[in-house]
Design brief:
Elements (H helix, E strand, L loop, with lengths): L7 E4 L5 H12 L3 E6 L10 E4 L5 H9 L6 E4 L14 H29 L2 E5 L12 H21 L5 E7 L2 E2 L15 H21 L4 E2 H13 L6 E4 L1 H10 L3 H13 L2
Parallel strand pairs: 1-2, 1-4, 2-3, 4-5, 5-6, 6-9, 7-8
């Protein structure tokens, strides 16, 4: 842990999934945890609740003003939007990027002065999708690719102040982000079902069949703990066996990669 009596951390998106598992793990390790949620009463027991949406700058600023000292930030809040890119409404892409990228930067900017004073640590919640984009998840992958760039830039910008930056790259994780309702292909223009319907359904069936093998969110929380407490933390953490496989596949030549993924995802 940082060399203070009781280290403090802000965890965004603490109501469910990885954010909640992380907040609870750090709480149990003795951290003072500020759990950021969008609705009052959703933060884990034993944490100090901060209520804001990462798309609302003024609310973030007000929340940051209530935190005196801070040793770490886990920028975790995010959403996933699935659709063929041809039929993805630009407004939905804007929403995806605003939450997953711009929102993370809003939070970071609000809390960074405190982290600079403590020479603290920052964890960005990326995804293996930030290295390896899959079909129909292009919007989500764009946001996670952007976080990879954010992490690379931040590491160099903040190094002179002693602030360490890490990014996590989980694979399939047992979390509600993938069970929240998505628009069906039938909700898009008629051409969408004709052009993409069969492949989208194959993709969904495969994803559902693999959900039972998803890595528990607690495993990601362990990686977060290492990033915040290790004497020599990593800059990137690949979490989960499927994430490691996808990282290896991504190193193949593009056409080999595309052929392999096409056979795996669609049987063709």
């Amino acid at each position: 842990m940082p060399p203070v009596a009781r280290p403090s951390v802000v965890v965004t998106g603490a109501s469910t999934g990885i954010g909640r598992a992380t907040a609870e793990r750090l709480r149990d390790l003795g951290w003072l945890v500020y759990g950021s949620v969008r609705r009052p009463g959703e933060a884990p027991d034993g944490t100090t609740e901060l209520v804001f949406d990462v798309t609302e700058g003024e609310a973030i600023t007000r929340a940051a003003a209530t935190v005196d000292e801070l040793d770490a930030l886990v920028d975790n809040a995010g959403i996933a939007i699935a659709a063929p890119l041809e039929f993805l409404p630009p407004g939905e892409l804007t929403r995806q990027l605003d939450v997953n990228v711009v929102g993370q930067l809003r939070v970071l900017q609000a809390f960074l002065p405190k982290l600079r004073r403590s020479r603290g640590r920052i964890v960005l919640m990326g995804s293996i999708g930030g290295r390896s984009a899959l079909p129909f998840l292009g919007a989500y992958a764009m946001s996670k690719f952007a976080l990879e760039a954010m992490a690379d830039s931040l590491r160099l910008e903040l190094a002179p102040f002693g602030v360490h930056v890490a990014i996590l790259e989980p694979g399939t994780i047992a979390t509600a982000i993938w069970t929240k309702p998505q628009r069906a292909v039938d909700d898009f223009p008629p051409d969408a079902a004709q052009l993409y319907g069969e492949r989208v359904e194959k993709f969904r069936r495969l994803a559902a069949s693999r959900a039972s093998n998803a890595v528990p969110a607690a495993e990601v929380a362990k990686a977060v703990e290492h990033a915040l407490t290790a004497a020599k933390p990593k800059t990137r953490y690949v979490v989960g066996p499927d994430a490691k496989r996808r990282a290896a596949v991504q190193r193949l030549p593009d056409r080999w990669r595309d052929s392999l993924l096409s056979r795996f995802l669609f049987g063709s």
